Amino acid sequence: MATSASYSFNINLLNSDEQKKFQTVYNDLKSRHETYFDYKRNLLGKEKFHEEEEENEWRYEIHRHLRARKWNVSNTNKSLLEMIQWRIDNQVDSILDDPSVQQRMNYFRKCIPSAFHGYTKAQRPLYVEQTGRINVDDIMINFTHDELIQCHIYWFEYSCRLAREHSRHLGQHVESIAGIYDLHGMKMDVRKLLNTCKQCLYIDDNYYPERLGQLFVVNPPAVFPALWNLVKHFIDPVTKRKIMILKKGNETTTNLLQHVDSNQLPSEYGGTCRSCATAPNCLSVS
Hints:
The chain folds into two domains: 10-89, no CATH class; 97-269, CATH 3.40.525.10. It has eleven helices and five strands; from the N terminus they run αααααββααβαβααβα. It has helices at residues 16-28, 30-44, 51-68, 73-89, 99-111, 136-142, 145-170, 194-207, 224-231, 237-240, 249-259, and strands at 114-119, 125-129, 177-182, 212-218, 243-246.
């Protein structure tokens, strides 16, 4: 598969100092990355492993980690090496094809109504979740902590796959995702999932840096300030700046429509989506 020049990584967009640091990291990790390439090639098979595209994605990966580590070469090398080992140890590169994880995710979606729902105006894949509907006791009875973490990894890998597929379709690189988290109905018992939430945030910051483009938190309940105080200390400051908390109906619709075209937005958030089979109720509720 040839990689379109329009979404190939262009090192010339970096300044001279950034180019030197990028090249240093690339050269430092060349041997380790080639070994990882061999691992993925054997794991996925030649029909799924596209050499040029994988090389292009690796360059974007380096760039994301450099930005996240404030262009510190040593920290970036360490970060990327840890990411590679984590992916191997947790079989992340095959998780989307694992039948047991797929089955678990099917049940998870019944516990929390959610869907990938089109794209934002910035062409980011848009994920919508009615987080406030979560049945915490049901989740804790039917999932172990490790299984919930596995579901989160599956979700992030699927998000990255959508971004890569959309890049091919557009002929331009899409690396970040967007989300709408609807907290209507959320109760304080969600605190029982705090440790799992903290672990998910750690995974996001360390193994998927700079992947979040925008996050809209809508319909925050009265208990939200207390819940926010519990988790905000674990969120990277850069990530925190990408989170927009929308408290009122008109404010929610106005802000969302600044970032998402109306036909890509479910009607309950002010959109005009008619493409879903269940429209205007775009998210299925079990």
